[in-house]
Amino acid sequence: MSDSQSPAASRVSVAELLLLTSVFLIAACGLVYELAAGALASYLLGDSVLQFSTVIGVYLFAMGLGSWLSRFVERQLVGVFLQVELLVGVVGGLMPAALFAVHSLLPPGEAATFRVLLYALVLLVGTLVGLEIPLVMRILKRHFSARYGLKDLVSQVLTFDYLGALLVALAFPLVLVPHLGLVRTGVAFGLLNVAVAVWALWLFRAELRARVSLTAACALSALMLFTALLGAEQLTTWAEDRFYGEHIVFKQSSAYQRIVVTDGRAGTRLFLNGNLQFHSKDEYRYHEALVQPAMAAHGAPKRVLVLGGGDGMAVREILKYPSVEQVTLVELDPLMTTLFRDNAKLAALNGHSLSSPKLRIVNADAFGWLEQQQDVFDVIVIDFPDPSNFALGKLYTASFYELVDQHLAAGGYAVVQTTSPLIARRSFWTVVTTIEATGLTTTPYHAHVPSFGEWGFVLAARRPFRRPTQFPPGLRFVSPSSLPALLDFPPDMARVPTEVNRLSNQALVQTFEEEWGQVH
């Protein structure tokens, strides 16, 4: 500081900096609450683009409503701003925990009640967040009018606002959720809102009339959030135990999904984003049906590609063929392959297949990986989650199956898990139609898996399917005598006209949402 600067000027400079920093934090907190609500809606109501779209739409509308309401705040700007910060910190910070708890307490079939609470909280938090920036701008204008014209004021505030939004948008999926979880992330950012209120209380203490009550409100809000932070793990455990109904032995959020493994008297179950992926008591039916027909029809496959299937169960079935020389497993989430390779109990389920010297694990997006590779394979096993959103839906498009065709050997077979032909009949046949649009010949079939009901698969090749006459020894479900029944579709699962699922329309995602939405 030069000799010509006064202490007052220095204090004003610090005040400006702190207020602009508060804009950065406000933007970060506001976006975290929006993303947390969208993620929770997808996690608890179904992993669907519909959930994120509606949450974001309501939130943006609420922010506009809050901005409009700010015009009616004419007195005690700092006091009102401080109260808004405390409210948004407490309500927004505790929103994920509250939604988790309520969802666990509601009886089955009460999704509508949960949605009402969800959107009511999103509306309230969005309105409070919408009040913040206009109030900050007016405080800056009132206290530093000599330094700011309207142009400079708007420029400064929005720069910090958008910078905060950018950083948290990157940190939310890559750092915050994987390391803190949704509940702790919400509470931690609620504490940041309270911190903004505390330094507003200190900066403008001379002009605040109700300093004692505001100080008490800050202390109470901080105490509530600190308590919630300490109890976040217990709350999440309690909520998920009620949701899954069995003892949870592993739970972790990666950058891509929430992975939960439960273990009970009936067996071990894997859930991704709340959706059951397998139950140890009957997974052999699913994985034998997925892998064995294609492998046996080929006869002596040497090079096999598995897309998805990070649990290693499909690889286990593939390694039952002595002719196999190399298996390439492409799984997006490294946490999945690490978990099912290193956890003793889970590795036992897949026969320690992920430790096989014949296996090469690639953690990458399957679409992008296929675009960059030139290798061809005798058998390609496609075991992706159902097409419940556009990110997954692209893996069921004609463009993707054209890539699969390019990597399929002349006499090779590809097989795709294809949801339930009974519950999601149009979705199932949409996949068949889409594969056929690439010029491949399809052979649809289905199997009864008690944990899922009737489940569908599609074989694809450049030649007609040749029914195998023998399978590896020791199979518990698939056999030459049971295969004809798998290929037979009764009238309630018979083919219906469907359109091709393309990247430009993603028709399958909407169809899938409609059909499975009638079940929940």
TrEMBL record:
Keyword Glycosyltransferase: no
Domain of life according to the entry: Bacteria
Topology within the bilayer: Multi-pass membrane protein
Location of the PABS domain: 223-462
Keyword Acyltransferase among UniProt keywords: no
Residues annotated to bind S-methyl-5'-thioadenosine: Q257, E331, D365, A366
One Pfam short name: Spermine_synth
Protein residues bound to spermidine: H287, D311
Compartments where found: Cell membrane
Keywords tagged on the record: Cell membrane, Membrane, Polyamine biosynthesis, Spermidine biosynthesis, Transferase, Transmembrane, Transmembrane helix
EC main group: transferase
Residue intervals passing through the bilayer: 12-36, 48-69, 81-104, 116-136, 157-176, 182-202, 214-232
Molecular function in Gene Ontology: spermidine synthase activity
Annotated metabolic or biological route of this protein: Amine and polyamine biosynthesis; spermidine biosynthesis; spermidine from putrescine: step 1/1
Catalytic site positions: D383
Catalytic activity: S-adenosyl 3-(methylsulfanyl)propylamine + putrescine = S-methyl-5'-thioadenosine + spermidine + H(+)
Documented EC number(s): 2.5.1.16
Role: Catalyzes the irreversible transfer of a propylamine group from the amino donor S-adenosylmethioninamine (decarboxy-AdoMet) to putrescine (1,4-diaminobutane) to yield spermidine.
Assembly information from the UniProt record: Homodimer or homotetramer.
Annotated family: Belongs to the spermidine/spermine synthase family.
The protein's name in its UniProt record: Polyamine aminopropyltransferase
Organism: Pelomonas nitida
Gene for this chain: speE
